[in-house]
Amino acid sequence: MASRLLDTGHEITVYNRTAERADDLVARGARFANSPREAVEPGGIVLSSLANDSAVEAVSFGDAGIIAALKGGVHLSTSTISPTFAARLAERHRSAGADYVGSPVFGRPPAAASGKLWIAISGSAAGKERVRPILAALGQGIVDFGDKPEAANVVKVAGNFMIASAIETMSEAFALVAKHGIEERQFYDLFSQSLFACRIFQGYGQSIVDREFEPAGFRLELGAKDVGLALQAGGEAKVPMPIASVLRDRFLNALAKGRGDSDWSAIALSAFEDAAVP
Amino acid sequence: MASRLLDTGHEITVYNRTAERADDLVARGARFANSPREAVEPGGIVLSSLANDSAVEAVSFGDAGIIAALKGGVHLSTSTISPTFAARLAERHRSAGADYVGSPVFGRPPAAASGKLWIAISGSAAGKERVRPILAALGQGIVDFGDKPEAANVVKVAGNFMIASAIETMSEAFALVAKHGIEERQFYDLFSQSLFACRIFQGYGQSIVDREFEPAGFRLELGAKDVGLALQAGGEAKVPMPIASVLRDRFLNALAKGRGDSDWSAIALSAFEDAAVP
């Protein structure tokens, strides 16, 4: 996302715990900050992209955090966090005279670098208005889910649940055909060209057939977190989600087997092992 | 399919238990047979499309059945039947000097009428070779799964399992966002244009958002049967399918509520009722 913002002529300051990860960006004109707070310009826009609730909390709260420095500005929060925490985070911004816009993104790093993300947004009208040029640079589609700051995160969590379910569904189907002596690749060729001719089924289906789970496009450990967030959001709103419950156990099984750093499509290995697919 | 065969210049004889259903075809030049056996030309090709194992058994076996009349011909079996029964059916054809080709199709009646089906085939090389012109008229894609007659049915059952899972997954996701106060249609607009921009998610997602389950494109009762076939095929090959198990209960719930004649996407209503989505 930072690379895309540079490409589209934005002046940016970047921060990462591992400073070297910013080297390329700095070489291309970004300023480097030594702390999250230093990356914030009072009254400006700060975009964060982090692994989970506690990472967002760590950079946002406290004297050295984003919120204390942002006064009058907007925090564009792209992390997949729990809706409950998003609501709390928005409230803290409001109290400190800053704005918060939930803006989780769908798409991998190459989609971000070429401005092809899909972005769900929600939050105050003024905040959304201010960040629109930034979002326009990053995404091919921006869908506004209203003024509840946590709404965009509910959407993100529901979307990631759908992807996890697609991976598990394909895995079970591949195990079924494989145990009946059918080539997985032929089955893949059929469904990925016809009924399921879309990116999730084509991309993850290919990884599963090839047993190619490294390097992770999206780490399995983060997928497990997101399934947990779906169940948590379902629990809060009293929504039974039987497939999400199945996914929870599947991800725990994959984590137990030490696959947290593999791509999340590696849950397929658990389905294959359960069925003793050769 | 019969309509398409007429359109592409084939001479056909048609049979249906409800004779009036053939009226249009007869008006366009098809001959009408008064029994399944009468529709069969010895040494010719007979195509059957029926609801389940027992319906296929009823028209195939016995003195008045297809097999007894077909000698030297090929039975092109497009029904979604259990792989076990498909293997038994193929064996009976072989004993009677006839050929059997499993050729279940993916696609609804309009796709059949315009030659846009996707067709999985398996069976003897000679049988497949003979029916190829027929299949070419009906399908935009034909994938050959080898010589085991039941293989194509395993593929069909796996494919229908994937569709049922997609419907249930969307239903749970819709219930989740709805209970968090988000418009289902907006969520639909996001996923159906981006990650899940393919027919199954677009078509069934639309039906669910619109709560439009009549008339059935594919009857829920048949969907329940197909989930049962997936579990049966999984049972035979020792493949645990936790999502298929969830789907079994969901379809039973929908049948219990008297929705067997609705479209199978009406399982969404069960997910909504479980979560008390208004």
Fold topology:
Two copies of one chain form a homodimer.
Chain A: H1 2-7, E1 13-14, H2 23-27, E2 31-32, E3 45-48, H3 53-60, H4 66-70, E4 74-77, H5 83-95, E5 99-102, E6 105-106, H6 109-113, E7 117-123, H7 125-138, E8 139-144, H8 151-179, H9 184-193, H10 199-210, H11 220-237, H12 242-256, H13 267-274
Parallel strand pairs in A: 1-2, 3-4, 4-5, 7-8
Antiparallel strand pairs in A: 5-7, 6-7
Question: Overview of this structure, please?
Answer:
Two copies of one chain form a homodimer. Chain A has 278 residues and is of the alpha/beta class. Chain A folds into two domains: 2-147, 3-Layer(aba) Sandwich (Rossmann fold), CATH 3.40.50.720; 154-274, N-(1-d-carboxylethyl)-l-norvaline Dehydrogenase, domain 2, CATH 1.10.1040.10. Helices cover 53% and strands 11% of the residues of chain A. Chain A has helices at 2-7, 23-27, 53-60, 66-70, 83-95, 109-113, 125-138, 151-179, 184-193, 199-210, 220-237, 242-256, 267-274; strands spanning 13-14, 31-32, 45-48, 74-77, 99-102, 105-106, 117-123, 139-144. In chain A, strands 3, 4, 5, 6, 7 and 8 form a six-stranded mixed sheet that branches. In chain A, strands 1-2 form a two-stranded parallel sheet. In chain A, helix 5 (83-95) links the parallel strand 4 (74-77) and strand 5 (99-102). In chain A, helix 9 runs antiparallel to helix 10 (199-210). The longest helix of chain A is centred in the middle third of the chain and has 29 residues, at 151-179. The mean pLDDT of chain A is 96.
